[in-house]
Amino acid sequence: MAYTETFWMACDSTEQLRAEYGPFHTRGEAELEARKLGFCYVLRYEHVIGEKDEIQEVRCIFIELASVAPRMYRKLHTRCATCGESAVHEENWRAEVWADIHEFEHSRHRVRLFEQTRSEGLKEVGDWRENCA
Ligand SMILES: [Zn+2]
């Protein structure tokens, strides 16, 4: 009788040339390691083993760590639309503080916020400060 052997890897992309780390027995272990490494995916491998202990089939399923990954790669760019001064921030509130100080020190300057993620690049966040008020 054929049986299936399952194990988990942490990996950084779904491309053929990806970095993988593992194996792990459980998804939890693989996820933990992926998060530590800043990887966005875990990979579930299923080896279907035949009667003579040969691998008959390899299946792999990628699972994206959606809730964590985008945050890890996210950077916030503030840029003043008036004078061009800019800065990079890790956290929302730091971007807000930077904008508040800049607009306080330079009256009528308007700071725009851009969000940078690995998958989408730079993207402007519209109405960002109305949301925080
Ligand atoms: Zn300015």
Describe this structure in words.
- This protein has 133 residues and is α+β, with helices and mostly antiparallel strands.
- It folds into 2 domains: 3-69, no CATH class; 74-132, no CATH class.
- The protein is 26% helix and 41% strand.
- The chain has 4 helices and 8 strands; from the N terminus they run E-E-H-E-E-H-E-E-H-E-E-H.
- The protein has helices at 27-37, 69-73, 92-105, 128-132; strands spanning 3-11, 20-24, 41-49, 55-64, 75-80, 86-89, 111-117, 121-125.
- The strands form 2 sheets. Strands 2-1-3-4 form a 4-stranded antiparallel beta sheet, covered by helices on one side. A 4-stranded antiparallel beta sheet has the order 6-5-7-8.
- It is rod-shaped.
- The termini are far apart.
- The model has no long low-confidence stretch (mean pLDDT 87).
- The structure holds zinc ion.
Short description:
With 133 residues, the chain is an alpha+beta fold. Helix content is 26%, strand content 41%.
Secondary-structure map with pairings?
Elements (H helix, E strand, L loop, with lengths): L2 E9 L8 E5 L2 H11 L3 E9 L5 E10 L4 H5 L1 E6 L5 E4 L2 H14 L5 E7 L3 E5 L2 H5 L1
Antiparallel strand pairs: 1-2, 1-3, 3-4, 5-6, 5-7, 7-8
Salient structural properties:
about 130 residues; alpha+beta; binds zinc ion
Broad structural category: alpha+beta
Helix and strand succession? EEHEEHEEHEEH
The portion of residues assigned to helices is 25-40%
N-to-C CA distance: 64 Å
Q: Provide the list of bound ligands, each named once.
A: zinc ion
Instruction: Report strand %.
Output: 35-45%
Beta strands, count: 8
Count up the domains.
2
Total helical elements:
4
The main pleated sheet reads as: 4 strands, antiparallel
Structural Rg: 22 Å
Poorly predicted segments: none
